[in-house]
């Protein structure tokens, strides 16, 4: 069970957009260059973030992407769902309905204990992701490396000049 | 991010093995027939469970599989790890080390705030799975359908005759 690498790319790009925000919209090419990523594939992740209302595409010669919401208003769950989709990780295909005892009366209405336990665990994961915003992660990153916001902003300002 | 269907199959098969246990080892063909699953593919999951020490293969004409440990001693995490592997779902490929600011001194030693937040969420999921045993799920299933253990045991006893 693995997430696509797009989740890491999207999260770092959201943080970079937040730090670079004052400088205006950022092109995919510049966002990609900052972490040496393939621009075409990063563009896919940005389109997914755009569909989820996390980033906005700004048209025009100084256009590009910017965060659509404040970093306080975007959770890690929002970003993960935008990239990976809303599906549960555990697939319950109701195999208990199949086979010699599958047609037992009431079986379909009674929740499956396995499925319920797996969903509870996944809910714990989702709750953690939903409780943490981009702003929280930015604060933590800045505590470890206070120079990061200025460095990111500076680089994007120069690169866009 | 989806688990393979093998996780559902493995969990149900472990419960069926536990309920059928008194009747001795159960063949893959019988385990598969109980939920109308392809035996060859279910066999792969049972081999994985066997490598993880969750089930034991019993040789001989009355052979098959049985649980290697008591249901109290097998957690959902054990089964998920046996089937899906121990890798984290979130892939951190350290893209922050790439690009114009990637070589920043100390960057590699400072934990990435994104990676740390994603790991914390995954830990919450793992903790939930590790806190729940097959015995817990069996109790829950039996509360909803008290006839299940007898029905499973009876079917496997008949089918093996």
Order of helices and strands of chain A: HHHEEHHHH
Number of strands of chain A: 2
Overall tally of structural domains of chain A? 1
Most residues in contact: chain pair = A-B, 63 and 62 residues
With helices defined by DSSP (H or I, 4 residues minimum), what is the helix count of chain A?
7
Strand arrangement, major sheet of chain A: 1-2
Oligomer: homodimer
CATH class bucket of chain A: Mainly Alpha
Give the distance, in angstroms, between the N- and C-terminal Cα atoms of chain A. 42 Å
State the CATH architecture of chain A. Orthogonal Bundle
Mean pLDDT over the full residue set of chain A: 90
The named CATH superfamily of chain A: Winged helix-like DNA-binding domain superfamily/Winged helix DNA-binding domain
Unreliable stretches of chain A (pLDDT < 50, length at least 5) are none
What is the overall shape of chain A?
elongated
Biggest sheet character of chain A: 2 strands, antiparallel
Q: Could you please say which CATH topology of chain A applies here? A: Arc Repressor Mutant, subunit A
Structural category of chain A: mainly alpha
Helix content of chain A: 40-55%
